[in-house]
Design goal:
10% strand, globular, 3 helices
Length: 80
């Protein structure tokens, strides 16, 4: 793990409320970026179009494998 990533993870742990949903969300929110089929040049720009949907499925699968129940892993949004 790089020093920068370690600092970011420490900051997230200290600053985000002790709610596992928020902490996992902060850690995994961009996990779908850079994957084949997501990263592409569109209209002359490098983008990660659809990374949110791919990342949500990856995060759900990971959390279920870690033992979290399906209710914990359901999709959520903090956007209003």
């Amino acid at each position: 793990m790089s020093l920068t990533l370690g600092i970011i993870l420490w900051w997230l742990y200290k600053k985000i409320a002790p709610d596992p949903i928020l902490r996992w969300g902060a850690l995994l929110h961009d996990v779908g970026k850079g994957l084949d089929g997501v990263r592409a040049v569109r209209k002359g720009r490098l983008t990660d179009w659809g990374h949110d949907h791919v990342g949500a499925q990856l995060a759900r699968d990971l959390l279920i494998r870690l033992g979290y129940g399906k209710a914990f892993c359901r999709p959520r949004s903090l956007a209003r």
